[in-house]
Design goal:
Layout (H helix, E strand, L loop, with lengths): L1 E3 L2 E3 L6 H11 L3 H8 L3 H13 L6 E5 L5 H7 L4 E6 L2 H10 L5 E3 L12 E7 L8 H10 L1 E12 L5 H22 L5 H11 L3 H10 L2 E9 L4 E8 L1
Parallel strand pairs: 3-4, 3-6, 4-5, 6-7
Antiparallel strand pairs: 1-2, 7-9, 8-9
């Protein structure tokens, strides 16, 4: 964990206590900051995640890395019963204040507090990248999903157009931290954000890791030109 005058940030080895402490530090303005930094695209990404899961009323769904529950709330619009889990107690407390009707539980993606085959669908949005062992997390997500159940991973990825990718990386590494200093309660966390996105595998690379964790029928769809990708898969 690195501490600076602006706050605390995790290192890229992503130790759980460091990641949790970093997100505790951004919890109070997390949702606002995400909307500003994404130019409002975050709302569309959440809607696309819900659509990709193909949820039916009454299904049981787990939203891992739920943070303040903004994604959990969106998923529940389907009529499914959705539970959010997150490592950061600060994020969960912020969510319980603003969304008291959303079920939010403390939970580590590597050791989920649920039995085998509990859920019809599982999803993780912008959080797999923050786990120390993403492959183990994907296997843990499979463990709690029933056979035939669905997975959707919504995560930052690689823009497919070379010119747009150059512009995007310039924003990511230069402008994004500067904007975060104006709106975030812990701007240095967004330096980590930029570095972790740059180090993350591209669409095909993540698809291979999902398949390697035991999921089948892996496919992806790009959003916002590949800034974000939705990866879908089915549990054997």
């Amino acid at each position: 964990m690195t501490s600076t005058p602006h706050g605390r940030r995790a290192s890229l080895d992503k130790q759980p206590h460091e990641v949790a402490a970093m997100f505790d530090g951004v919890a109070s303005r997390y949702d606002l900051t995400n909307t500003v930094l994404s130019f409002g695209q975050d709302r569309g990404w959440r809607r696309a995640t819900r659509a990709a899961l193909g949820l039916e009323p009454g299904e049981r769904v787990l939203d891992v890395g739920a943070g303040t529950g903004v994604s959990t709330e969106e998923l529940a619009r389907s009529g499914a019963y959705v539970v959010g889990a997150d490592l950061s107690l600060g994020m969960l407390l912020a969510g319980r204040r603003t969304r008291p009707e959303v079920p939010l539980l403390a939970g580590d993606a590597l050791r989920l507090p649920f039995g085998d085959a509990t859920f019809d669908a599982v999803t993780i949005s912008f959080a797999l990248r923050n786990v120390a062992d993403p492959d183990a997390a994907l296997r843990e997500l499979a463990r709690v999903t029933r056979p035939g159940g669905r997975l959707v991973v919504c995560e930052f990825s690689q823009p497919t157009n070379p010119l747009f990718r150059t512009v995007y990386l310039s924003y990511l590494m230069g402008s994004l931290p500067a904007v975060a200093r104006r709106v975030s309660s812990n701007p240095d966390a967004y330096v980590y954000l930029a570095e972790s996105i740059r180090a993350w595998p591209d669409q095909a690379g993540l698809a291979g890791r999902i398949a390697g964790a035991g999921w089948r029928a892996v496919a992806w769809r790009n959003l916002t030109g590949g800034v974000v990708a939705l990866h879908r898969a089915v549990r054997d």
